[in-house]
Specification:
Number of helices of chain B: 14
Strand content of chain B: under 5%
Structural class of chain A: mainly alpha
Radius of gyration of chain B: 24 Å
Shape of chain A: globular
Strand order of the largest sheet of chain B: 1-3-2
Number of domains of chain A: 1
Distance between the termini of chain A: 12 Å
Number of strands of chain B: 3
Structural class of chain B: mainly alpha
Distance between the termini of chain B: 76 Å
Helix content of chain B: 55-70%
Order of helices and strands of chain A: HHHHH
Oligomer: heterodimer
Largest sheet of chain A: none
Largest interface: A-B, 40 and 53 residues
Number of helices of chain A: 5
Helix content of chain A: over 70%
Order of helices and strands of chain B: HHHHEEEHHHHHHHHHH
Strand content of chain A: under 5%
Chain lengths: 118, 394
Amino acid sequence: MNEGGISPGFYTQLRDYAELLDSVLIQLKMGQGSPADSNRQQLSRLLTGTSSSVHEMLSARLFQTFVRDACKKISAEALGKSLLTDHVGSDVLNALEDLARSFEQERACMFRKLRAQF
Amino acid sequence: MHVSQVAGSILMNAYCVASLNQLIERARILVGKIPRSLPQDYDTLAQTCRQKINTAVAQIQRLLEEPRFQLEQYQSERLRSLRRIVAELDVLETVAIAALHRAHEDDHRLNAVLETIRQEIKYPLVRPVVSGLSQQYFCIHSELNLLCVPLTEGQFLLHLPDLYHELGHPLLTVDNDPVVEPFQRAYLDALTEILAYIDSEKTKESRRRGPDHPRFLLNQWESTWIRFWLTEFFCDLFAVFVVGPAFAWAHLHLFAKRGGDAYDFPITGVSTHPADAARMLALLEALCLTGFQTEAENIETKWANLLQHAGAREEPEFVRCYPRKLMRTVAAKALEGVRGIGARVAEPSTHGVIHDSLNRAWNVFWTDPTNFTSWERKRAEEVLQTIASARNPR
């Protein structure tokens, strides 16, 4: 977009974050998976900003601006580190639930704006 | 489980079963709408649509069939997932398949133009498909590799430099491609410089112990730089580095016709695009980096005149939000990135059919305004014929 409006690429990133959060949440709620699971690892890297890939580092910067706004009870870094432990407590699970809801609201809001541009 | 939770789960299930089955039907109809007789230029878009629809159907089937999605505790995730799939199908229907379904001779010509641009600037990614279906302005859907332009834009030359801006977006979103990583790394370096600058301003504010508003503003700017602005600056800079002054002129033209406050900066919320004056500042810096000082001075003079007539006034906070030194750094980083990916950097000696036409158009625009329209019509037709005969030699 060269003029005002939401960039479709920005929306896509939000949607991907929302999907990643939900997939990790489902796994954790089921009591399945391990810290070595790829989705958990990816979410952890986004939260802690510890990626070695250039593209993921860019993505982490963006992701963290949303986490900072949405997650007041626990820091992004603490959340990310918890995902790499065997036992993920209910406080982390609740924080991830809040974050997933917040991302979904942001995604839906951005989508409404984007759709108005079509 | 509480009785009301069980009842809620049953209700949600009933809703999901009907709704998800209907979505599968919608997805199948969409596949049926993909035309089968379009030119090869559209193959990548048609294939992307099929893949995305198939992925959506697979996700819908998971939501319908996996036993866990019958349980109350997973209904929130199920609903969120359903909504995302609906949004995905909305985009495919209203943007991608609509572009295929209504592809027209004008679109075919624009695709030929974009292919020539790709070759001229040594663009390192697959060329997007172009559609004249945009309701707003130029816009790229990187995930679909689809570039939408307003219906009549292909008939004119002055705004076509904006195609180059849109080509910048996929360079920042593509993953695992070492060829484009230099551009992404340059972006990260520029972002680091910007965040360091904002941090230093925050430190100054905390020493002052004044009102909260300046600190709030700095936090807003930080988020907005990361979320939106730097991407737009980098796409502008990619454009000006590969096509030269024509892009800065196109920016002036867009502002003259549709601009608001050139020195706008967010006071309460966020703005998705940086201020027009800041964008021009970065473009002028960029032109000076590539040997276009004379053109930069000419554009700056006309820009200043335009701002005067638009009644634009620079506020001190604007300078704080977009300091010239920072704009210069961002421009220099972007140039490193463009060179790093092997794209052609335009210089005064650069030539190419599209490149020459777009830059020449602005010379004629200013030197012979009365006859410009007829010159543009003739030149646009000549360009299209040149491209067509190069693509289909006899």
